[in-house]
Amino acid sequence: EQAVLMGLVTAHNLQEVPVSMARRGGICLYVSENGPTALVVSGDGVNALGPGDKGLISIPVLKCSKAWRI
Asked: How, if at all, do strands 27-32 and 35-41 pair?
């Protein structure tokens, strides 16, 4: 999944930003014990949502390792 995300970032020339500057609708990379996953910053701008082992997960944006502005 990380390779797909990086391909998307490269193909669309997305601007990497500090995680603390991530905004609604942006993409961030979260790495858990199960591996990396791409998340979308939610409407509140504080959490990021994406697929998890048991369905939708919500993670604080500041726990992500990278972020890109859309």
From this structure: antiparallel
Phi, psi (degrees; rounded to nearest 5) at 63: -90, -5
Over residues 3-40, the pLDDT tens digits come to 888 888 889 889 999 999 999 999 999 998 888 999 99
* Phi and psi at residue 47, to the nearest 5°: -115, 160
Q: Where are the beta strands (DSSP E) in 1-70?
A: 15-17, 27-32, 35-41, 47-52, 55-60, 66-69
The CA R_g of the chain, rounded to the nearest whole Å, is: 11
> What beta strand segments (E) does 2-41 contain?
15-17, 27-32, 35-41
